[in-house]
Specification:
By secondary structure, the chain is α/β, with parallel strands linked by helices. It binds pyridoxal-5'-phosphate.
Length: 495
């Protein structure tokens, strides 16, 4: 299994090299050159323990890992730290089937990949004989930051620096990150939005001068964002599980197709669903759900990607994104691997913040449908589903639910659908209280208010937020991110 850059001007890599590197040196993203086939997916995929399933699905992507090594990584990731036995339970509410991906240590789906990635990273460093330590740069719209901090906390030979938009995450997300433990972590709020943070982060990852200075201090950079292929592969596993669970629940017959609806921002989660389809999971449509930042909806409708628009801070903040990184990977696959053309489109995007898709690539998008939900739609959907089915969604999951409802009505397609449930409602407690008409205290105390109203168990990692001590209190300008990185490296190197 070989990995190649979407822009075609970087060397092909093994999986360990691609994971260590994070982003290709030509600015492109690594993609697998082919997709292994799973064969028939039957009920046994629902009954298997998650560790064995992850091993089965991911094995062909990691040829240079021995079975034992890979299993060790899986055990480290999924052995404990999840608060339910099924790891990713499939829960029905009316016609909807929610695949709950948020039972990990930070209560969002990002844990599914970020619990595994540090193990893969450590093993990869050994395999490649890399002598430098890794400094992981993270830009986050809220959930990746905490999941990465938790995953890499005190992991040998790694240092992790997280940047998040200071005024654009939920109080729970901000408190989680600012109180993060671990001797190898640093967190900065930035004055700017997620796109600013991601752009600066990507620039640092391909900045040769900065890399030189880091190397002299004994470090090399990598990324824990979904631009790293090590983030996307683990996410394929739960879609395979979801299909098996639909079978086990009697919602479909073997071989019958499903739709998958995913609340999307950086397009990583839904891209993993697309990869699952490529591996043989019977999928009809992949439904891409956006919030009021509807750049992806417009793109799927018109074939024009137009980033010349303001970014709104919404009640589903982890999806407040204008430049969606992983779309580049879909373009690459849909174009049949035309790296030259993708390189051109991406240059156009960075220069003009806009590009129009040639019709031949657009034809490769027939697997997708798209839609968006307003903030009001989100609150209504949460309230409605709670009253009618006694099921509580977080704001991001509610975006997907609303978009799925609209899609069904518009298309008449009522194929059984998995809705990716991406976060615990407690992470966005204020808005969820508002949606179900419950009184609430502001800030992190809203977690307690929500508990009084709905009685659902508070995930352990969110239970003591009010008593946490803030350790990372710095907020910087977005133009100061590079200086901050250099200062952190120097301080760690001189220890
Ligand atoms: C990150 C995130 C999303 C968006 O996922 P992408 O892979 O960026 O498309 C949706 N919901 C929640 C809760 C998230 O944390």
């Amino acid at each position: 299994m070989i990995y190649e850059s979407t822009r075609g001007r970087a060397a092909e890599r093994s999986i360990s090299e691609a994971i260590i590197q994070g982003i290709a040196e030509d600015g492109g993203l690594y993609v697998p050159k082919s997709f292994p086939q799973l064969g028939t997916i039957d009920r046994s995929f629902a009954d298997m323990d998650y560790i064995s399933l992850a091993h089965l699905v991911l094995r062909p992507f990691f040829p240079e890992f021995s079975d034992l090594e890979l299993l060790d990584c899986m055990r480290g990731a999924y052995g404990s730290g999840f608060d339910c036995e099924e790891t990713v339970p499939l829960v029905s509410a009316g016609d909807a089937s929610f695949l709950e991906l948020y039972h990990g240590p930070t209560a969002a789906f990002k844990d599914m990949a970020l619990q595994l990635m540090p193990h893969l990273m450590s093993a990869s460093l050994d395999k490649c004989g890399e002598e430098k330590d890794v400094c992981i740069l993270v830009s986050t719209s809220g959930d990746t930051g905490m999941a990465a901090l938790k995953g890499f906390e005190d992991v040998a030979r790694t240092l992790i620096i997280v940047f998040f938009p200071a005024d654009a995450v939920s109080p729970v997300q901000e408190m989680q990150m600012r109180s993060a433990g671990g001797s190898n972590v640093r967190v900065f709020g930035i004055r700017g939005n997620f796109d600013d943070a991601q752009r600066a982060q990507k620039a640092m990852l391909v900045d040769e001068e900065l890399a030189g200075r880091a190397a002299s201090l004994g470090y090399r950079f990598s990324a824990a964002n979904s631009m790293n292929i090590g983030r996307l592969l683990p996410q394929i596993v739960y879609y395979v599980r979801g299909y098996g669970a639909m079978l086990a629940a009697g919602r479909i017959e073997q071989g019958e197709k499903i739709n998958i609806c995913v609340p999307s921002g950086n397009f990583g989660n839904i891209l993993s669903a697309y990869y699952a389809k490529k591996m043989g999971v019977p999928v009809n449509k992949l439904i891409c759900a956006s919030n009021e930042n509807r750049v992806l909806t417009d793109f799927f409708e018109s074939g024009i990607y137009d980033a010349n628009r303001p970014l709104f801070v919404t009640n589903a903040p982890s999806m407040d994104i204008i430049v969606s990184s992983n779309l580049e990977r879909l373009l690459y696959h849909a174009s049949g691997g035309d790296a030259e053309q993708i390189g051109r489109l991406m240059t156009e995007l960075s220069e003009k913040r806009r590009y129009e898709l040639p019709s031949d690539i657009r034809a490769g998008f027939s697997d997708f449908a798209a839609g968006y939900a307003s903030q009001k739609d989100v609150l209504n959907a949460i309230g409605e589903v709670y009253r009618e089915f006694d099921y509580l969604m977080d704001t991001h999951t509610a975006v997907a639910y609303k978009v799925w409802e609209d899609y069904r009505e518009r298309s008449g397609d009522d194929i059984p659908t998995i809705i990716a449930s991406t976060a615990s409602p407690y992470k966005f407690a204020e808005d969820v209280c508002r949606a179900i008409g419950a009184d609430f205290c502001e800030g992190v105390s809203a977690v307690r208010s929500l508990h009084s109203a709905c009685g659902i168990k508070i995930p352990e990692p969110l239970a003591d937020l009010e008593n946490r001590r803030i350790v990372h209190d710095t907020t910087i300008g977005r133009e100061d991110m590079k200086a901050a990185v250099e200062a952190v490296l120097s301080s760690f190197a001189s220890r």
